[in-house]
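Hi L.,

You mentioned the student needs an example of a multi-chain input paired with its predicted structure. This one should do, with 906 residues in total across all chains.
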Amino acid sequence: MSESFSIKLNGQAVEAFPGETVFQVADRTEVKIPSLCHDDRLAPVGACRVCLVEVAGQRRLQPGCAWVVTPDMEITTESDRIEKHRTVLYNLYMADHELDDSGLPIETANGNQLRDLCKTVPTMGLEPVNAPRAARPADDNPYIHFEPDLCILCARCTRYCDEVEAVNAITLSNRGGETTIATAGQRSLIDTTCELCGGCIDTCPTGALIEKKAPANLVQLGGTESVRSTCNFCGVGCQLDLHVHDDKIVKVTSPEPGETLNDGNLCVKGRFAYDFVHHADRITEPLIRGKDGLLHPATWEEAISATAEGLMKVRDQHGADALGFVSSSRCTGEENYLMQKLSRAAFRTNNIHQCAAT
Amino acid sequence: MFGAGAMTNAIDEIRDSEMMFVIGSNTTEAHPIIAMEMKRARQRGAKLVVADPRKIWLAEMADVHLQLKPGTDVWLLSALANVIISEGLHDQAFVDKHTKGFDAISAKVKNYTPEEAEKITGVSAEDIRTVARMYATTKHAGIYYTLGITEHTHGTDNVYCLANLVLMTGHLGVRAAGMNPLRGQNNVQGANDAGATPVYYPGYQKVTDAAVREKFEAAWGVPLSPNEGLNLNVMMKEMAKGNVKALYVMGEDIVISEPNVSQVEAGLNQCEFVVCQEIFHNETTRFADVVLPGACFAEKDGVFTNSDRRVQRVRKAVDPPGRARADWEILCDVARACGYPMPNYVNASDVFDEYASLTPKIAGISYGRLEKNVAGLQWPCPTPDHPGTPTLHLDGPMIGKAEFQAVDYRPSAELPDNDYPLILSTGRTLYHYNSGTQTRRDAGPVAKQRGNFIEISKRDAKIYGLEHGDRVKVSSRRGEVEAEAWVSPRVRFGCIWMPMHFAESRANLLTNDAGDSVTGTGEYKVCAVAIEKVTSETAEEALELAGH
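Structure written out for the whole complex:
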């Protein structure tokens, strides 16, 4: 990396590198700067104006997400001027958004960071703007719902769709107060280039994009327990947080960007294709084929001894190499270890394989 | 040539690439999150070259798309080597220090000129020269490949050709470079690592090595077989011949996933005993004498090892349904019932510890360390204080000098003729997974892709009188299936493509089970087929015949 230099952040000397933004420098310190439109995976745009900071020598406040530091620059992130700016800004957002009885922006099961910010400033009671916001009239895709009343037009979803997933299925559309998030011709996501990765849901800061599968009243139901695991589809090895309620998976999310190899991203299978886990077609009891040619429920003891007898009979009559063991690249390392141990140690044959080439 | 089959470099290095050479990998569909890293590199200005018979999405954003004829990879790759050597673009210092056999490979590729290659592969000599120069002169240039390389009767030769390119240009032991097979399933890497192969104990220790065998005999307390076992492809053929008489299948629908499945079905029919350990009934459980209900990934503890050798935890989030049980517990009970004293493992961690203690590559990994390392640990990781190895060969090839492998082009086992005039390639789509038992139970994938289809070029569609959406019968020497015709600009004239996910219309009734001589991998990517439009009358006849 190029040579570092020093800047002053809230009066403290901190190390910075050429080309870094205020956010990148602050990330290595205790200084927290609020933001709505920024996502480390995306190029900064400075759209939401929440992260404005004071830069010595600059007449106007500047966005910390996009402002590139230079040697000896002095940055202030908390001051009366910034506080005043935030109060007016959040109140303008409130005037332009649907509020609940407490006077704060409404929220969905995915939370609303704007609502959290609004709690930090006094209410000015501005007149509602009541600008019309177009929704997609009938989007019957099974996973992704857009709630225009919660949208702040920060464009994280459309930029994610462009810069990370690169399918450009959604875009900002219209002008002024009528600006909204749209597909081409307001078609259902199913009929666009959308690959249903759900990254737009993940990056949305206000809960305007929500998943249709998760119960809307999760918070009231007592929330979920989250279990970190590894995706069971392809060989990338994305990390998942399985959100569990009442012994059922109700939602899957990625760990935070930067934390694991998938960098906050998931595909349609990893994020959404978990219905199979609790599907009624799952095999729930051991089965043994009877003389009638049909499979019949059995106890575990019966099924295990039938398995052992069947394998041992063939070994005794035809030798161990008349047995074949097909292990699974879908199962765990431990299970593959045990399957080859069963084949090799219990039956003394190396006829053990799995779909190795795939 | 320089180690076990695994990515030499880490996935998160891709974003720092200067060039990516993607061959035989439809990355955006089969490995979407790796494709996101590639897209990110592309947006930062990295060059992208895609070699694929189909105009896949990555090909559309590539600097150069080498749209070769299926099965001509050895010609294409040898011609790239030809240009690199004849123009003196190879890395002489790396070749001298780390390799042997350079003279032999130089002599071998001499005849594989770009002009001759153009005639065989359909890729222009100019494009071959452009890509060879680009690859040889870019430092952070990585090769990424998948089953489009390996699922051929000359799959091993294809891999050798790629490795030759990596070695002659010194793209080894460099960040964001190397040779990177992207593994198709969550734990292919881990299943191979754990010894679920007929030739290796865990950790790629040979079953024919007496010293290794003694180590495992001591650890497991029984004498072990000194003979290599049957790979899956051969095992299926031996079963059809009646030599394999009992099969224990865990978590795999072989009647969908193996090539030439009617042979597999015939074999299963004559088997004396078949056990399936499964989470859903599938095509294979129809043949089972005993079905043992296992647990899916969310219902048990363990580890998966991904494409870049990263060992990561799988954690139990919910209980298995009904009386289903974790598969590792079932396997222990079966072993004990067969008279083998499997130790009393209290949990999956105990099993892992035994596995790791016998496997030097992962000996330093434990559940305790995986709790602390949220991004996983990449093998080799031989000791508890070893940080793991994101990039292989940073200090040169692993053992001694890597040897170039000079190979000659061999045509695919079955080529088109008058009876079967088209080449069929098969593969995966973004929305479904393998035999579809999981993804076909979710609304999104089903809404995007309801049933089986073929991609066919506009020109072929015209010849066969097909419109987009018409029903079509596809037949090979081994079987026939029906699918929907998708007239697509993605495929070459004379070639069609079909996904493998649909049980009611199985691509693998058509595919050729001719296997690679080293790996036994079937030739899923090239077989000869004929197609015929299904008219409403023929459809009605078929229904009548089926007794409806």
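You could point out the following to them. Chain B touches chain A through 145 residues (CB under 8 Å). Residues 155-169 of chain B form the longest helix (15 residues).

Best wishes,
N.
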